[in-house]
């Protein structure tokens, strides 16, 4: 194997290599059988093998490791950070290549076992965690292993080394070549130079010259050293979902690698934290030497490409690449499937300005490409990528080429036949004069017993009247509320629910109780959480009237606007990953009436600004707001939360649909859909002034 021109020479210092190894090992995990008695202290009870995080909530490993679990379920064990205790999270195998240990079909269609009795190549599997947790992720190459020039690689994993006690293990090997046929999906890299122990299968293989994961350990040699590795690009051969792809999550391949690229771009560009990122270490290794883009520019570009919907198909992506000069995409191993893969085919392009021009032309094609679907965030993503292209071109390329790019942008934006691919102007439902029935639960602390609550439950009819169902003014302890309210709530729900249409539960509390997670209550105790069963929203018992200068009730005006106009989210307490004070009420009232304030930092309630900021939002006259109750991990980047919250608000369009959207997110978190994990603990404030609370704070008397 020859080393391609312009490839990083791997000139990093030993400290850089140690830092790189630290990043890799932090993302390496153990895979266990889903047995309740597994030992998280390093013993090998139920131990199956190794794996590693490739994206938030996604683990890549070998199929022969993952499929040894029970019913496609496994336990993933890891340390969120070096000083923390081990964490075990249940995961499910979303995809395996192939799905069984039998090889390809033989004569007559029969599937025959592989000669070795092992799992045939490519022997890869994707595991999705069933609950959200913070963890680091590796950086995965966007180039096929066939373009990897050989040399030294780092590998890591878990093994007992014959001692019976599991421990982390890392080593270095040389790539000695390949065997197998890439066209048959069984090409494997041959590794030699270090001993490999049982249990390492599924661990990452890292190119030390470029600082990126290029493969997954598959097997160890029958001799004393070495083994084999499968290129990560084999994941491109995952089956394409049948039917229409209407969302990123419909295709596991796109979901994983879009999340991967956004993760690394967000962490590299965030001003929060001082730790070296993967892109920083790649620069120190010299990985950008002679290439059109530095590692920092590359990770930024990949993050922007990951904001776009994926290519319509592999065929459409190949056609797009074929139209670029001096490219031959069909000659590469494993046809490109996503925008990152297409970018990876351009690394061997001629050097100099020509290589950069080729990349920018590719970006322009991605901006104007046909879409499998369009989201509210698609247009901003196109604009963001265009701004990146302009900035790079202005810094390094001729005015003539910049003029050509502007023409491409103009033609792509206004080309006939593409108008239907842009985000349509929302057609909103008319304002309802009769709303659907809902259940109202009012909770109020007793003035002389602040740790006990009086409560009242009623049913709001579509006429606007609220009929009482039950009440208790004797004071109920917080931990007793779910069990005490189970019966009355069940009766109230029975009066409102329609088949496949559960009624909304509105929880009215004073501002001091906005933290109360009623949506997490299990009523009855062995049931699913209320927020999974139905939409649950929060109202405020103690808000005051808010009149504009012209005497108009501003709360009602804002509410009416969110019912008839396309809503838009505005994060009001976080900028560039840093906490900022929520604007004063006067400034908040200047926001457009269709604005939905979003509080990113409210979960850190020990900070005095958290409660004060929420109070200013509630006093600003907004009828709809979102905040997250969970405190973000210290090293977490909140860009994904901002992005997803904005998309959710935009997709709901009007306040009518937002409770249902949040309900769907809670269902997704409960059922283990990784694309919804950003919303874990989100609260929805939804205070309809057309349905005032009964009795103005005084509980009505129940029959």
Write a concise synopsis of the structure shown.
The chain is 28% helix and 22% strand.
The number of strands is 25
Helical/strand content category = alpha+beta
Strand portion: 15-25%
Low-confidence stretches: 1-9, 104-117, 414-433, 696-703
The rounded distance between the terminal residues' Cα atoms is: 84 Å
Strand order of the largest sheet: 1-2-3-8-5-4
- Please work out how many helical segments DSSP would assign: 17
- Radius of gyration, in Å, reads 28 Å
Helix amount, in percent? 25-40%
Shape, per Cα inertia axes: globular
Q: What is the arithmetic mean of pLDDT?
A: 84
- Largest sheet: number of strands, sense, barrel closure: 6 strands, antiparallel, barrel
Describe what this molecule looks like in 3D:
This protein is an alpha+beta fold. The protein is built from 17 helices and 25 strands. The strands form six sheets. Strands 1-2-3-8-5-4 form a six-stranded antiparallel beta barrel. Helix 1 packs antiparallel against helix 4 (278-285), helix 3 packs across helix 5 (295-305) and helix 8 packs antiparallel against helix 9. It is globular. Mean pLDDT is 84; it is low at 1-9, 104-117, 414-433 and 696-703.
């Amino acid at each position: 194997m020859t080393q391609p021109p312009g490839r990083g020479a791997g000139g990093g210092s030993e400290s850089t290599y140690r830092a790189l190894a630290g990043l890799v090992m932090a993302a390496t995990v153990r895979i266990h059988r889903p047995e309740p008695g597994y030992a998280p202290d390093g013993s090998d009870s139920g131990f199956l093998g190794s794996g590693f995080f490739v994206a938030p909530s996604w683990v890549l490993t070998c199929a022969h490791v993952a499929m040894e679990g029970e019913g496609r379920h496994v336990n993933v064990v890891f340390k969120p950070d070096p000083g923390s205790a081990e964490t075990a999270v249940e995961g499910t195998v979303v995809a395996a290549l192939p799905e069984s240990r039998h090889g390809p079909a033989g004569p007559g269609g029969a599937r025959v076992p592989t000669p070795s009795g092992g799992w045939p190549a490519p022997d890869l599997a994707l595991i999705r965690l069933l609950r959200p947790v913070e963890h680091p992720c590796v950086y995965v190459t966007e180039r096929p292993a066939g373009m990897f020039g050989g040399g030294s690689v780092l590998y890591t994993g878990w093994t007992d080394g014959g001692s019976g006690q599991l421990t982390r293990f890392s080593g270095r090997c040389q790539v000695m070549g390949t065997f197998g046929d890439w066209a048959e999906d069984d090409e494997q890299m041959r590794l030699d130079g270090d001993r490999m122990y049982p249990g390492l299968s599924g661990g990452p293989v890292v190119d030390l010259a470029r600082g990126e994961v290029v493969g997954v350990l598959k097997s160890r040699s029958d001799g004393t050293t070495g083994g084999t590795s499968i290129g990560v690009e084999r994941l491109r051969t995952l089956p394409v979902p049948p039917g229409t792809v209407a969302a990123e999550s419909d295709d596991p391949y796109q979901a994983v690698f879009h999340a991967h690229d956004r993760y690394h771009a967000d962490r590299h560009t965030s001003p929060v934290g001082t730790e070296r990122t993967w892109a920083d270490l790649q620069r120190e290794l010299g990985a950008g030497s002679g290439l059109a883009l530095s590692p920092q520019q590359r990770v930024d570009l990949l993050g922007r490409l990951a904001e776009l919907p994926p290519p319509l198909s592999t065929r459409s992506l190949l056609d797009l690449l074929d139209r670029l000069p001096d490219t031959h995409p069909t000659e590469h191993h494993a046809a490109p499937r996503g925008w990152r893969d297409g970018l990876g085919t351009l690394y061997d392009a001629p050097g100099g300005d020509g290589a950069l021009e080729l990349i920018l032309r590719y970006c322009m094609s991605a901006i104007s490409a046909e879409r499998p679907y369009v989201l509210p965030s698609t247009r901003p993503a196109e604009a963001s990528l265009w701004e990146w292209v302009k900035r790079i071109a202005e810094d390094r390329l001729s005015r003539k080429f910049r003029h050509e790019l502007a023409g491409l942008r103009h033609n792509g934006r206004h080309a006939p036949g593409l108008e239907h691919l842009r985000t349509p102007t929302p057609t909103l439902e008319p304002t309802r004069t009769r709303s659907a029935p809902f259940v109202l639960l009012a909770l109020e602390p007793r003035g002389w017993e602040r740790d006990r609550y009086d409560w009242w439950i009623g049913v709001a009819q579509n006429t606007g009247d609220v009929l009482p169902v039950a009440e208790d003014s004797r004071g109920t302890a917080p931990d007793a509320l779910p069990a005490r309210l189970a019966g009355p709530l069940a009766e109230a729900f029975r009066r409102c629910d329609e088949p496949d249409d559960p009624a909304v539960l509105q929880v009215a509390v004073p501002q001091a109780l906005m933290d109360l997670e009623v949506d997490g209550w299990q009523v009855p105790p062995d049931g699913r959480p209320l927020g999974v069963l139905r939409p649950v929203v929060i109202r405020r018992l103690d808000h005051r009237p808010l009149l504009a200068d012209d005497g108009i009730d501003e709360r009602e005006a804002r509410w009416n606007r969110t019912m008839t106009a396309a809503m838009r989210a505005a994060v009001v307490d976080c900028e560039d990953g840093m906490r900022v004070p929520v604007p004063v009420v006067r400034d908040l009232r200047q926001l457009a009436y269709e604005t939905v304030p979003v509080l990113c930092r409210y979960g850190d309630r020990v900070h005095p600004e958290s409660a004060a900021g929420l109070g200013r939002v509630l006093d600003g006259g907004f009828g709809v707001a979102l905040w997250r109750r969970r405190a973000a991990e210290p090293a977490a980047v909140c860009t994904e939360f901002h992005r997803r919250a904005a998309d959710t608000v935009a997709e709901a369009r009007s306040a009518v649909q937002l409770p249902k959207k949040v309900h769907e997110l809670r269902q997704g978190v409960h059922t283990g859909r990784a694309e919804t994990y950003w919303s874990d603990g989100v609260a929805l404030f939804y205070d309809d002034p057309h349905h005032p609370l009964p009795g103005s704070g005084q509980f009505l008397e129940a029959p």
